[in-house]
Fold this protein.
Amino acid sequence: MEYQLTAEIAAPADTPQLDALQQHGVAALLDEHLDALAGIEGPDGVEIEPVDHQIAVQADGATITWVLDAPALAFAEDAAQHALKELLERTELLAAWNVHRCEVTASDDELAAALEPDEDDGDEEVEFELILDTVESSDEERAERREALAEAGSRLHAFGADAFGQDADSAAAQVAAGAVITAVRLLTDELFADIQTLEDTGLSADQVDALWVVDELPERHADSYDAAFAKKFLVSLTILGYRLSQPDWTPPLSTAEALALHLVKSRAENQLAAAGLAEELPVEDLFTAFAEAAFEDFDHEALYGEDAEPLPFDEWFLPYEHLTTALHPYLATD
């Protein structure tokens, strides 16, 4: 019988609040590991099968809605607790996180019977064993994903391996470059979806929950992120993506381009995590070096803080004052 479980996992108390980009990365890691979980084996050969899951990440943790097929409610709840704890321990970047509330609700009228205590049950700890999807997490699967990213990396002409702090023949730099190109593709597709949503609703980002990219921009101006803004941001991302494919790199020419590159970098890191490469490659070092090579400065990061406005919103799409570059006609519209 199927049971729906709601679990809350929390970051360590001393962890800073997660921004939108970090929340996206946490969701990608959790989704990867839950997808790879084929089953949970309990005592006496009892099997608990994951059916479906949904993940919502907040600034201080995540909520997981998980549907499990189990012979009894007690097995479903205990199995979920053990599985989530072990998955967090196996995920280096989330190893310090904790499972807090974990509640299970039966999906049919047998809930009352499932809740009745079993006289034979004691306080003895029950052991569970995770059954991982060996196809999803196999060396062959990882090799295929690495090959796809490496192939995409050949399209990043603006930077060489040294931009990632690596030697010319570095495989790590090649897949990191591929992650950057893949991130541009994904963000472009997702921005088209955001534009459609904002146009259909006539609302701004602070009034819409189902957005892919726009809600990862600084929250301080969410009430100004409407369809017209999203279209301009798509143009900025497109210009940036074009320059990434050219042999000579020009750093971001405007605040909008700097924010677009910020999202590209973060999404590229998530691509390596989703491909199961986060524990095999020095991801943080790769993209720290990339940021140093790609950005002229990091003033745009202050937009995610709570201090005074560092970069005027009405100038985000205009070239920086020290530049004389021409402005795309679409970005010049009111």
